[in-house]
Specification:
This protein is an alpha/beta fold. It has one domain: TIM Barrel (Alpha-Beta Barrel), CATH 3.20.20. It contains 11 helices and 9 strands. The strands form 2 sheets. It has a 7-stranded parallel β-sheet, sandwiched between helices. A two-stranded parallel ribbon has the order 2-3. β7, α9 and β8 form a beta-alpha-beta unit. α4 runs parallel beside α5, α5 runs parallel beside α6 and α9 packs parallel to α10. The relative contact order is 0.12.
Length: 298
């Protein structure tokens, strides 16, 4: 059977242009990792052509073994930590004149703080380039350690995401080293103390989950005051990952979007090619504008 069966017409993407290819080579030469490349994101051509990317820190090897992920895996091993990766990333941000920086990481269960300190250091260095650069980070669960979450909050990012990825019933098969309730607690702790952080989460669909299960997750996310939700179609990046069970139609994605807004999310973006950082700056803009409107109506 083909890797992702026969892709529906709505997955057609343009071939990466010269600007995108040039940026890919530059990042590779500078040893700057992006989840776009490591996860084989289908949007890499269109995003890189616009100098949009999601930087990946803490190396390119993960200590967990999720069944859907293409990132290198080394469960149970002690890995090195490159302290200079933050400097290289800041060089790219400065050279490209980025005004919105998105940073994620592999999961590093071998580190006492899960890598929270490296996130904080990078945020500090980016603020040193310009206080006007907005920063969105997508963190692993950090073992839900309160001290690690406190470091993240204290670093002052504008948006913090933590992805639930799938419905709880599929965690044993797809995310055996993760825990659904632990991930919800991370999103809850990010809001502790009235931090004012905009929080975000994402789901991949097409693993065989039901619409009712997806809606249940949406309600759970609203229960921890999650602000932004993105939903996209899972595509197996290689032969080593689990297969697609179902292609969700654009109409079904639209219905999930409607449901999400009805539940109280400040922003919802759902579609076959949507990924957790897709149109990240536009989503934050809309949340901030919504907050301004809400204040004006009080």
């Amino acid at each position: 059977m083909p890797l992702n069966k026969r892709l529906p017409a709505w997955f057609r993407q343009a071939i990466p242009d010269d600007n995108a290819l040039k940026l890919m080579r530059r990042l590779s030469d500078m040893q700057v990792n992006t989840v776009c490349k490591e996860a084989k994101c289908p949007n890499i051509g269109s995003c890189f052509a616009q100098s949009r990317m999601t930087f990946m820190i803490l190396g390119n090897t993960c200590t967990r073994s999720c069944g859907f992920c293409n990132v290198n895996k080394a469960a149970g091993r002690k890995l090195s930590l490159d302290r200079r990766e933050t400097t290289r990333i800041c060089s790219v941000i400065k050279d490209l004149g980025l005004r919105y920086a998105v940073i994620t990481s592999v999961t590093r269960d071998d580190l006492d703080d899960g890598g929270a300190g490296q996130f904080a250091e990078l945020i500090k260095e980016i603020r040193g380039i310009s206080a006007d650069i907005r920063i969105e980070i997508l963190i692993p669960d950090l073992q839900a350690k309160p001290e690690s979450i406190k470091v993240i909050r204290g670093a002052g990012p504008d948006v913090v995401g933590h992805n639930l990825e799938t419905v709880p019933g599929l965690y044993p098969a797809l995310r055996p080293q993760a825990d659904y309730q632990r991930s919800l607690s991370v999103l809850r702790m990010l809001k502790d103390g009235g931090s004012g952080l905009i929080t975000k989460s994402s789901l991949m669909l097409g693993f065989g989950e039901t619409p009712a299960e997806v809606e249940r997750v949406m309600k759970d996310l609203r229960g921890v005051d999650c602000d932004i939700l993105t939903l996209g179609q899972y595509l197996a990046p290689s032969e080593g990952q689990v297969r697609v069970k179902e292609f969700i139609t654009p109409e079904q994605f639209k219905q999930f979007e409607i449901t999400g807004f009805s539940l109280g999310f400040k922003e919802v973006l759902a579609g076959p090619l949507v990924r957790s950082s897709f149109k990240a700056n536009e989503l934050q803009d809309r949340v901030l504008n919504r907050k301004k409107v809400d204040k004006c109506t009080i």
